[in-house]
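Q: I have 295 residues here and want to know how they pack in 3D. Can you give me a structure?
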Amino acid sequence: MNINYELYKVFYEVVINGSISKASESMYISQPAVSQAIKNLEEKLGGKLLIRTKKGIVLTEEGKVLFDYVKKGIESFQNGENAFLNYLNLDSGSIRIGASTTITRNIVMPYLEKFHKKYPKVDIKITNELTTNLITALRNGDLDLLVVNLPMKESKDLKIIPICEIHDIFIGNENYYNKTKGNIRIEELFNYPLITQKEPSNTRTFLNEYLKSNNISTNIPNEIVSYSLIIDFVKAGFGIGYATKEFIEDDLKEKRLYEIKVIPKVPKREVGIVTLSKTIPNYSSKKLIELMQRK
């Protein structure tokens, strides 16, 4: 049975308001139009819904049965509209973000602080993992977006949005800075203990490509999973580390760490947002992505 939703809406308003005149006022339509809508609905259903009395309208037994369902349906629509508007206004919602601990601290957090001040009711969840694991979680629908070091292996089901440039450098404590005089050629790197992230991180993959392009071995004995531990080991004098300049600016400025310039220079790279190419991010995620894309 194909019945216009508006006829049910008029029926609902008449019953809720208790009279055709009050329903007319609440819906901003004429009383004859309200009466005609009720008549049309009764004709389509093949039965009487309302009885007019001096005290107002009274539901028939059949009308009571129908109204119970109509009331639930219309109020469900209204709740859905309210929930939708809440999302549009970011009075509710959630964002599930995947990123490494280092990217979260140095790239994502400043944006999240701004976002949270503007939209404090949006629930934000962070998952810290290797990029390969985060991509799996994104594809499984467990995450809304990733923020990762680029480049990464491209795939048709992934959309990659670069948001900022970063620069990888080699670093040492004061002792290693003095040993190298702050400058060495790439061939001399393995004259010193080298401390890097363990494979298969994107940062390590990028370093491997840099070494390979200069015909240097990628077999590095001192591999550490945690980026922050690399910094600690370098400060303690265990060797020369590989790190991102933008993430250690305070240490460089305060001379807790020193940049050791290697020739040729490590190429710059980017950090980017990754989403599923055929999936539209929820409204909260969309607004955060827009914020992170602003220069």
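Q: Anything worth noting?
A: Residues 61-88 form the longest helix (28 residues). The chain has a mean pLDDT of 90.
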